[in-house]
Amino acid sequence: MRTVRIDIVSDVVCPWCIIGYKRLEAALAILSGQIRAEIHWHPFELNPTLPQGGENLREHLARKYGTSTQSSIAARDTLLRLGQEVGFTFRFFDDMRIYNTRKAHQLLLWANQHHKQAELQMALFDAYFTRGQAMDDEEVLLDLAEQVGLERGQCRQILHDESWAKTVANTEQQWLQAGIQAVPAIILDQRHLISGAQTTENLLSVLQEISSKASTH
């Protein structure tokens, strides 16, 4: 059994990040007898300047990317379909908002030390995309952290600790300097960069190649 380190740079309000992860999960399931994945999640804030309360998602996409309402509807239909294919439920609605995710990333980095990062990451994706919860609401974040087994009081301290906010910013800066400009970015074995939500077949192919190279050395 070969252990493969997998670093995933993502944001919790990025729909392609959960699709990319679910496709990776499917590829790893196929290779479950050959590869043991050691997954680490890393922060990438898509909207670090958004104020508390966020912004209407459709208006945000129009302002930031020039996305028309028609294009937005088409994109949502595509994401709904792709979500169904990988077993994830997207529920988009007209007044859906997008949020600043700095505090969510503070909790995720801290949760890694307690072996709860993966669970919290999935809980955040579900809370935002399936249940429409606010990703900058402290009580929402604390509820989710508590649900995966983290201590609420400690988590509250992390949310108010400026050093954790700086750790998120510094980590993001390191990834930017490493050439990561968009998410999801998946790095296999600290050498192979996979950009975007690749198909399960593509991911499977790269993982098999890594596995076979390891077995020939």
UniProtKB/TrEMBL annotation:
Q: Could you tell me which InterPro entries the record lists for this protein?
A: DSBA-like_thioredoxin_dom, Thioredoxin-like_sf
Q: Name one Pfam family in it.
A: DSBA
GO MF terms, alphabetically ordered: oxidoreductase activity
Q: Which residues form the DSBA-like thioredoxin domain?
A: 6-208
Q: Which domain of life is it from?
A: Bacteria
What name has this protein been given in UniProt?
DsbA family oxidoreductase
